[in-house]
Amino acid sequence: MKGGMVVDKHFFENLDSAAAHPRSVKTLFLSRQGIATLPTSIQQLTNLEMLIVSGNPHLNVADLIYKIKDLRKLKRLDLSACKLDSLPVQVGLLQHVAVLNLSNNHLTSLPNSIRDMHSLREVVFCQYEEEFRQWPREEKLRAVALVPHGHVILLDCFGGVHGRYRLGKLRVKVTEHKLWQ
Fold first, then answer.
1. What is the pLDDT of residues 91-146, one digit of tens each?
2. Pairwise CA distance, residues 115 & 113, whole Å
3. Handedness of CA 11, 14, 17, 23 (dihedral sign)
4. Can you tell me which residues the record assigns to a coiled coil (predicted)?
5. How far apart are alpha carbons 80 and 26 in whole angstroms?
6. From the DSSP assignment, how many helices (H) and strands (E) are in the chain?
7. What fold characterizes domain 11-174?
8. Hey, where are the domains in the chain?
């Protein structure tokens, strides 16, 4: 989709066109649009399955969570590259999100409330040493424990260089025995 035109009838990258077809929206791609807050009309997107708000460094994540917490079909939330230093405790309100992408941020821990995300299956970070891999061991172990029904995943965000992945694979799971120092 370019310039607000719809390529896939369920994929939108413009809030105005999404608001005009609220029941059709399954994927809303709002990456790098300088967004600080989303309008309350996002609550009308009852069939929304994936929300990508990556690359919006001024995004008020707590406000976003309050606006999307009741979207029962929302399974994937991409908050990558939003320059987050912390994740608000309100994240626990996202009961239906299964995949939470937190890559390319400045996080050093996860809030305890992430445990309340009962559908959460994956918390995604990049494989870079500056991300999850640099967290203190105790915080890594705590993060693994906070996602009891899923996994912390380290993704090679650029798909490897010359066929090589940083940690040997495109996706690796973090476990209490494999913290990927």
1. 999 999 999 999 999 999 999 999 999 999 999 999 888 889 999 999 999 999 99
2. 5
3. positive
4. none
5. 19
6. 3, 8
7. 3.80.10
8. 11-174
Pairing of strands 27-29, 171-174: unpaired
Tens of pLDDT, residues 79-91:
999 999 999 999 9
Separation CA 163–CA 71 (nearest Å) = 39
Residue 101: which of 155, 166, 139, 161 has the closest Cα? Answer: 155
CA-to-CA distance for 113 and 100, rounded, in angstroms? 14
Q: Which two tokens stand for residue 58?
A: 């001024």
CA gap 69, 119 in Å, rounded: 13
Task: Pick the closest to residue 106 from 128, 90, 121, 77 (CA basis).
Answer: 128
Cα torsion 155, 158, 161, 167 to 10°: value is: -10
Phi, psi (deg, nearest 5) at residue 62: -60, -45
**Residue 88 DSSP class:** -
3-state secondary structure of 171: strand
CA separation for the pair 33, 86 (Å, rounded): 21
Cα–Cα distance, 152 to 132 (Å, whole number): 9
